[in-house]
## 1
Amino acid sequence: MDHDRITALGRSLPFYTWYARSPHLERAGQPGVIDLLFGNPHDLPLPEYVETLRRHAEPQDPSWYVYMLDHPPATEVVARDLAAHTSLPWRAEDVAMTTGGWGAIAIAMRMITEPGDEVIYYDPPWFFYDILVRGAEAVPVVLTLDPPRFSPDPQRLADAITPRTRAVLINTPHNPSGRILDAAELEAIAEVLRAASARIGRPIYLLSDEAYRLITLDRQRAPSPAEHYDHTLVLYSYGKQLLAPGNRIGYLAISPRIPDPEPLRQAAMLARFVNGFGFPNNILQRALPDYAHMCVDLDVLRLRRDRLIPVLADRGYDPTTPEGTFYIMARSPEPDDEAFVARMAAEDLFVLPGSTVAMPGWFRISLTASDAMIDAAIERFAKAPTPA
Amino acid sequence: MDHDRITALGRSLPFYTWYARSPHLERAGQPGVIDLLFGNPHDLPLPEYVETLRRHAEPQDPSWYVYMLDHPPATEVVARDLAAHTSLPWRAEDVAMTTGGWGAIAIAMRMITEPGDEVIYYDPPWFFYDILVRGAEAVPVVLTLDPPRFSPDPQRLADAITPRTRAVLINTPHNPSGRILDAAELEAIAEVLRAASARIGRPIYLLSDEAYRLITLDRQRAPSPAEHYDHTLVLYSYGKQLLAPGNRIGYLAISPRIPDPEPLRQAAMLARFVNGFGFPNNILQRALPDYAHMCVDLDVLRLRRDRLIPVLADRGYDPTTPEGTFYIMARSPEPDDEAFVARMAAEDLFVLPGSTVAMPGWFRISLTASDAMIDAAIERFAKAPTPA
């Protein structure tokens, strides 16, 4: 990377630029800090998850810590779970284990793009979509999801597709809006992609970031885009359901509806080689069958959501009501969301400025704070400024 | 990746192509198998290493499994160890933690090359050098190390450098020859690179793969190339000293002699973002200060080496005497090393064909087999064919 490239990639990370100057770096974890910034744990991890990690760290034979590519007991569990969720006939060979959802997105980019190919994604985005597209020498094309519904507009999508479009990256349940796309919305996207693929003469891939698939707040099911569109790659992270993002494991799964999966399987292997052994740690793969169905308490998250929203609404912050994910978006009482966030941070309440996720004038709250932090936040927000 | 690119990258992996058809995939770990194929463990891991992993898997506070970039207690230990080894003033900020040595090489390629830049490496290589150079859109330029000394020829290196040369990748202690480059050899390389950098008007980086730095078999010290050449990036893996390659942790360290390290530090951060969160798992980073000085028993490895060599020599296999690493190279008794290896594999003795590491007519033995396997191998080799 020469100087220009470092600058260009750095510019595609407004979140990281903001965070590098945030007092959160110094204050996180200190007594009295109300930390609603990231989807990071603020309660102890699930004891049964800790127990399974500790058990699988104990060698059961001399090869326990051996080099490991895809571990069949892990890929088999993933395939079974995807089949149960989507009613599609996933096979273990469709599954490429990765170092979390981030690793899955990174290898997807390398698997399917050539330099100059276009990848469409939506604002508000996950922090690192842009750098992952650019890092693979592909060209980001950015569409917008508008509040309050944050629903992709099929016509705008159709208009954005060119002969160089290689993929569309979507995220449902959606960080940060909390929207779960319904069957009609997914079918509308699928129709656009089928027509466009036929027109340009090669399949456009749907990259489906489903990191929050299990984080649904009203006991509903989040449908997978793979149920609607054949050329789908599902990207998943176990970091959300376990609220343990530092233990890096996830996967990329090739839809069983893709007619000739073999080149994609080869590409998934090569992409993980090229990216620096993008396979999850041995212990995390061995333990996966034991923790694959563990999940943080969704009722607790829902209760936090339902306690925060009235307070935020009362202040005139126009909060979203997330169907899934860990996040509430709310309008900043002043147009400069970074200034508002800095003012709150000065009093040790940390939230994310919307401008770091292409939503200037908004801020994001994470429900992964502890109950004590939520209590304190409610008290603090009740006295926070109202919009001018 | 289109079809051509998959094919091209696949062709740069003769090892992987060979291994995908090897009976080892089915037979490894079965009773009676003599497994001298990889640097993989065949004895239980160090109990104190297991204990430290299990201890650090136990959360000590709610943020235990949080997202983690570089963990200062880990980078501080690395900097201290490098300073002790090299007498150079390494700082924690010079250290970028990675998912093993593989991850370190992968980010080095992204950090310093632009598409079309040339990277020189040496045959016999580590299996994945070529794909890591090509995967970063750089161009591999391959020089050869000749037996019995496997010493880089300074004149050949000087002749291979062009204005597009961005880096030279060397490996000492060297897999598979076992050579440890001495101060004179390292100084000769440094002189060539200093002159060439001055000539082409930009620094050529020395990428120093030191994964086996601690695996020295006669209690000697393996000097680091960083002691001789300023523009050095040290690439390290904890997978060798702990013989636990499935627990992915290592680092890239920027020499403190590089005048302006800031752009490289930024590039190391961005490269890990682009490659799919190339930071090691949280638990492995937390535990590092406790296991950083643990190492497999080198006396045991030396004893295995010293027992195998006379048998191999007696058969006329002309074995190397490794100064470091886990490996002995020996000449195949027939010109087609893959045929010889297949014949041995049919009797459940697994060694690596030299043709997979650009040494046709040779085979490689790993000393990480168990003592029982070494005993059985000695018996087997004593009756193996002699060269025609």
Note: Chain B is about 40% helix and 15% strand.
## 2
Amino acid sequence: MTRPSAGMLFTDQYQLSMAQLYFKYGLHERRAQFDYSFRSYPDYGRHQAGYGVFAGLESLIDWMTDVRFTAEDLELMRSQTGATGKRLFDDDFLEWLDAEGHFGGIEMRAIPEGRVVHPLAPLVIVQGPLAMAQILETSLLNHLNYQTLIATKASRVHEAGRGGMVLEFGMRRGPAEGTNAGTRAALIGGADFSSNVGVSHELGLAPKGTHAHSMVQVFMALGMGEIGAFRAYAETYPDDCLLLVDTIDTLSSGVPNAIEVFRELRQQGHEPRGIRLDSGDLAYLAIRSAHLLDDAGFGDVGIVLSSNLDELAIWQILAQIREEAARYGVDPERLISRLTYGVGTRLITSQGHAALDGVYKLVAFHDEGEWVPAIKVSESPEKIPIPGDKRVWRVYDQRHNATADVVAMAGEDLQTGGPLVLHHPYRNGVHRVLEQVDVERVEPLHIPVFSGGRRVGEAATIDEMRQRRLDDLERLDPGVRRLVNPHIYHVSLTDQMKRLQSDLIDRLQPGA
Amino acid sequence: MTRPSAGMLFTDQYQLSMAQLYFKYGLHERRAQFDYSFRSYPDYGRHQAGYGVFAGLESLIDWMTDVRFTAEDLELMRSQTGATGKRLFDDDFLEWLDAEGHFGGIEMRAIPEGRVVHPLAPLVIVQGPLAMAQILETSLLNHLNYQTLIATKASRVHEAGRGGMVLEFGMRRGPAEGTNAGTRAALIGGADFSSNVGVSHELGLAPKGTHAHSMVQVFMALGMGEIGAFRAYAETYPDDCLLLVDTIDTLSSGVPNAIEVFRELRQQGHEPRGIRLDSGDLAYLAIRSAHLLDDAGFGDVGIVLSSNLDELAIWQILAQIREEAARYGVDPERLISRLTYGVGTRLITSQGHAALDGVYKLVAFHDEGEWVPAIKVSESPEKIPIPGDKRVWRVYDQRHNATADVVAMAGEDLQTGGPLVLHHPYRNGVHRVLEQVDVERVEPLHIPVFSGGRRVGEAATIDEMRQRRLDDLERLDPGVRRLVNPHIYHVSLTDQMKRLQSDLIDRLQPGA
């Protein structure tokens, strides 16, 4: 029943071309290792992230578990012809795909979803038969790049809001069906709830939302005015009454009308929930609205802000409130504590940085019983992948803060104590030494996540992923968490890993 | 079998809240009209679009045709509770959704998919029962905003390439499952083919792609070198041999190795297809590679460029080739005629402008047997929707160029001849008069597309949509098509429509 575009053919043509070539050369079942990593933090133009939040892994695993080449897929491939009209894919290859075209032979280790992550160190390590590990590339990158991008943005929005509730509202301008993945990533990364009904339910969270301007317009067209719309809303949802107050004019119409309806609600024994501001100078309107609400005895109802919010907009709104609220007789911190942030387009599209530059690179190839490290040289040193089978460790200092992610050879154990020599991943000669006394502990970051065609262990819940993020953020230097111009977190190579990389590069120079 | 997040619950929570409210007030089956339009052309920072290409309509219609509230959807809604733990949705409303929760009552007229479109004038007009027309909003915006955004970007990329083939390569960094919609929109807007296997097949197009760096690395790890990889590729795909030449070094290794393999191919009676350049200074490398290929007798093989391409990058590459090629003994125009452009991340994410600002606004409401125009005032005049039931006409001048899109009342006929008074959509007093002698013809843009729960007529093919785009582009002033700083195309209101809008705004001022 799966459409071809949602199944195994959710891939790039060249993956299939290469897979057939490997099949023809008897290389298709040789084991290979590919690493997934991203090259740089999202840079939103005026500001750059100092850390990422890893997301999309469980979605990828769900997809990998069920997918295989269907009869329809193979028929489509059989129909495909090249430049001279001859078939591109031969029967023997298609028969092999029919039998072995699934991910049963893939072993995957990964950093758990929701954790704070950094560039260059692999987040996912894939080992398996070359042909299927290659075909996996496109879908793996597609799942992990987009969700990590959005989770990272969501974490920044959450940090900017200083603990205020964040609602994800981006569906109407999100990227088609990809919006669902974006909503999920936002909920892992920093949104508390979403307006997206279907995905919220699937993840076990309540979708959130009240009404739009159109509802007020309907009652106005019927001659019942804005207050008629508000009364109808209060009557329908007496315990969940949150009113959008800017259809006509926020301060002269919306808020006074809302207060009148809130009074009526309270007389009937219900507590109103709040108002939503969706246009204009949100900081100023929040201050003035809070003042009106306070005076009317509604000092506890919430104020939801929406309209073009992102981390910097929220940051600026809070700064403006701190500066101006007192002038209007409003306590700024009390006002800030009642704010909720509805964040739409700028979160679901990661405004300013629309794609994570994650890559999936061949780093080792199994030949004659042993792993042969592979490398690709490049004119940009940061694009040279870290070769060979490896492990990633996180090093914590005596203040319990994460101080570096270290990429080591698979056989190395960093928990034995002794000083750690940490090399810059691509600037030769740049290194630092961490003495044992400065290190609180060393944590291996990868766990096995996929084997034998299925997930290893239980799928994590959204709550567990959120907890991982919060735990990691607490152990991050405040300078790295800063919204603008953050400190650079160290990603380093061990001595052995650095030596392997240098040796391979030397050997692969053209003419060498 | 449909997951809730792909069906009717692919919507925002407030649509359901409002629908229940309308149900409680007996308004749910009153007819309402909502218009879909976008407010401004995408602005990519250094450059802005002068026109849009409309896409996503047939995808939306497919979704609308089959979707209805399922038992699972209703069960999820039944489980939802508000702030005090009471259910949010009552049984009577859920029963109504069970019986009437589909789009059978919706009538939709639209500009056909693939056509050139402009801001403010509605692209889609929806009339139908208020509750279901409201619930439709989120999915409609989601389908149309993203695909129109990507089709518009693709058209610009195609224009920049001056007729050279454009390949869409964005899957690895596209927005999760939304990538499929993005690929489709790119294929309508300007891409000739895509690497996305599943969607290409579903649309009846051949997916395109050859091999990645990893294939060369595998053969290098096996001691067979780059040329071993190229030979294997040529042997597997002798009539479709296109080689990626930058894994080691383009000019000292990749191109010479490719030429050697091309010679072997030709001796065996096969013509090679070309090379792909994926890093470095693409203009310079294209010139030098062309020179090497020419000298070796391969003056006809193609050169595919990829890596961070978008319309401006392509424009600059062509300018650089025109300036520098002769110095290396290469004819620039001949080189340009053999180029193909592989465009990835920057197309699928609409780099620089990540979301179209399309809106779906209530513009009329049926009351006591007649349509009552509705309006929403706003501090930003361009955000005030054009009220009432309406038609959009395109006016062509005597040079056969489209000169304005004109929004008229539903009852007006602009084909009767006589001068046309065209008002600026929101700047009062700004208008121009088109004399009959200056007008070649006037074309109504909308056709009925959805009625009685299904598509009206046949679905258009991708080829038909592409033809509409090409026809419209030919009738567009070259200044409007310009990549940077384009002329502004006129979108105007007729006298009658302008008067209706002004009257409504006057009546709705607060205190009026």
Note: Residues 8 and 84 of chain A are 27 Å apart (CA to CA).
